[in-house]
Amino acid sequence: MTVTLVNPGGLPQIDAYRQVSIATGSKLVFIAGQVAWDADGVTVGEGDLAAQVERCYLNVATALAAAGGSFENVAKLTVHVVGWTPRKMPLLLEGIARAAAKLGITPVPPATLLGVAALDVPDHLVEVEATAVID
Q1: Higher per-residue confidence, 9 vs 78
Q2: What is the DSSP string of 32-88?
Q3: 98: enclosing H helix or E strand
Q4: Residue 34 and residue 53: Cα distance in Å, rounded?
Q5: What's residue 26's pLDDT?
Q6: How far apart are CA 83 and CA 105, in angstroms?
Q7: What does the pLDDT read at residue 78?
Q8: Residue 56: strand pairing partners
């Protein structure tokens, strides 16, 4: 495994993510921010944050596979959510869980979660970008 995620002693133990990502390997992969578009560029889950998060994660998985990797290789995920408030956390986690179930993986929460005013297309509620390390 090229990436180990840990919450070291002396730092807050936050279940939603890990404080440290330790990566080894020889190939760095930077996945551009993925939005809730299908392969034809049609927005999936208009107005539904959980559905859009799910689609973003599925798109990241497709991009990782094209680079010869998977979510096991992800060193860092950054999620941008339009109009973020903590009340949106259950929808974010629901979308992550649904994608994880479809992909047959352990849910991968973001390392960084940012609230933003808007994204590239008004219908997009979330964008997910990833950095991976592959042997």
Answers
A1: 78
A2: EEE-SB-TTSPBSSTT-HHHHHHHHHHHHHHHHHHTT--GGGEEEEEEEEET--GGG
A3: helix 89-103
A4: 10
A5: 86
A6: 28
A7: 96
A8: none
Confidence (pLDDT) at 117: 98
**Whole-angstrom Cα Rg for the chain:** 14
CA triplet 15, 132, 25: central angle to 5 degrees?
A: 110
Written as one letter, the residue type at 33 is G
Give the pLDDT of residue 119.
Answer: 97
In this structure, are residues 95 and 57 in contact, taking their beta carbons and an 8 Å threshold?
yes
Please compute, for residue 40, the number of CA atoms within 13 A of its CA located in the half-sphere on the CB side.
Answer: 2
What's the distance, CA 108 to chain centroid? 7
Q: What is the pLDDT of residues 37-70, one digit of tens each?
A: 999 999 999 999 999 999 999 999 999 999 999 9
